[in-house]
Design brief:
Length: 353
Amino acid sequence: MIVLGIESSCDETAAAIVADDRRILADTIFAQIAEHTPFGGVVPEIAARAHLDHLDDTIAATMRQAGLGFEDLDGIAVTGGPGLIGGVIVGVMMAKAIALAHGKPFIAVNHLEGHALTARLTDDVAFPYLLLLVSGGHCQLLVVEGVGRYQRLGATIDDAAGEAFDKAAKLMGLGFPGGPAVAAAALGATAPYRDLPRPMKGRPDCNFSFSGLKTALRQRVDALRAEKAFDDATRANLAAGFQQAVVDCLIDRTRHALKIAKAEHPNLSALVVAGGVAANQHLRASLIKSAADFGVALVAPPPRLCTDNAAMIAWAGIERLRLGERSGFDYAPRPRWPLDEAAPVLAGAGVKA
């Protein structure tokens, strides 16, 4: 089975072709960083227009890279949500057009399921496993019991970790995207700030919160600027302190979730980390130890497959098509689409739960 995947949920225009033996035959991404950097964050209307401008060429380049025609495909998979609805609509309409014109199965994929199943593409991880899904828009801990079977143990009640990194980078004047900018600045730290808060640490649930940490950072930056003490060295130390605080929160919540998941699933196969923030090397190093403490391996896909990409969408499409599933051409794009539909909405979580 060979499937074309299309991803356009945020600020990456991407297409990929993946085979069911886990080979990525082609993978093309057009990054929109240049379009959004002047605004310090993703502008939905600009993102949607960029998808319109570049999706045709991105798909064509992917087909050439694979040396295939549409007649060689066994299905068309596309992000059907959640995401910025303008971009999702662009991708869905393109996928429907290709599938309809060439008589191929069409499958709408949950973007979060793409992240959740990436470890099965890269490492053939067996169910069940614990997933730390940590990105710019989402921060969740889920037990992945099977395709379409997810048990949410915790989620953010306000900011996602990636969103917090973006806001912190903007506060400190480090640029966009925030995660890589903060990580790069932290490398120059000589005396990292260690007194920033660790929200939710030690709580009996597995939820996250980063808004208080972000507020504490803003107050510290404002005070340092008022004292005219906010120089490059201070910025590096603050970046290191903020990064450590985020990682400490993620590790604390993940360890608690591992305890719960292992009790419910003694055959838990792995701890998987996915999403854009999973590319953070400091986080990965800390997760390796936590996973070992609970007797499971840490599986972290290559950084290119942690950030938004179409290979994960194609693979999730393969997993669904293997089960005989396909979507109708009346499918409506979804701005919100939780993996665990039965989980209660968390107070203050907005769209992130």
